[in-house]
Amino acid sequence: MLSNLKAYDIILGSGSPRRKELFSKLIQEFKIVTSGSEENYPDTMAAEEVPVYLSKMKADDISRHLNDHFLLIAADTVVISNGEVQGKPVNEEEAREMLKKLSGTTHEVISGVTIKSSEHEKSFSDLTRVSIARLSDYEIRWYVKNCQVLDKAGAYGIQDWFGIAKVSDLQGSYYNVMGLPTEKLYRVLVNWK
């Protein structure tokens, strides 16, 4: 599959183990290069624009150091609850607060993706609505203590206990919530020239 990309050195611009796992199902041979740029965005930016903005920033930072025959895929995922971006928590206390906000509500997960070569660039986003059942204080404390939440937007992983036990409804791509909208990405890559 994706024989149209054989001329490129394919690079995934992400250190996320979940993105690496998902991307490896689409493309077997690729390198990983991570960005050194801070994940900052203007305060006035609409929440739904943040993921594409951050993916472009990562792609621009990484592509400055690449040769001509590259195809770079950079992505960023954010959780949006009540119009507010919930990024990665900085500590366990912040993770518990994020999960309290998400408890018993529906929120949006948006991934932004930028695909860039030396000739072309394309960005897109994908949105999934996720409904969360009520979480008890004990469940929140247990989850934060026993699962790795500090490297996850919104302080949860849909692929672990949280997704199995507490996601009550999902509208959109499951893989988007994991961090990479694979179906949409494949559609763009298969038509890349």
Q: How would you describe this protein?
A:
The structure is a single chain. With about 190 residues, the protein is of the alpha/beta class. It has one domain: Maf protein (Alpha-Beta Complex). It has 7 helices and 7 strands. The protein has helices at about 15-25, 50-65, 90-100, 135-145, 160-165, 175-180, 180-190, and strands spanning about 10-15, 30, 70-80, 85, 105-115, 120-130, 165-170. Strands 1, 2, 3, 4, 5, 6 and 7 form a 7-stranded mixed beta sheet that branches. A hairpin with a 3-residue loop joins strand 5 and strand 6. The protein is elongated and about 50 Å long. The model has no long low-confidence stretch (mean pLDDT about 95).
Question: What are its keywords?
Answer:
7 helices, alpha/beta, Maf protein, 193 residues
Average pLDDT: 95
Unreliable stretches (pLDDT < 50, length at least 5) are none
- The geometry reads as elongated
CATH 2nd-level architecture: Alpha-Beta Complex
Number of helices: 7
Strand content: 25-35%
Residues in helices, as a percent range = 25-40%
Q: Which topology does CATH recognise?
A: Maf protein
Q: How does the helix and strand content classify structurally?
A: alpha/beta
Give a count of the beta strands, DSSP E runs of length 2 or more. 7
Order of helices and strands: EHEHEEHEEHHEHH
Number of domains in the coordinates? Answer: 1
Rg calc:
17 Å
Distance between the termini: 15 Å
CATH class: Alpha Beta
Task: Report the biggest beta sheet as strand number plus sense, adding barrel if it closes.
Answer: 7 strands, mixed
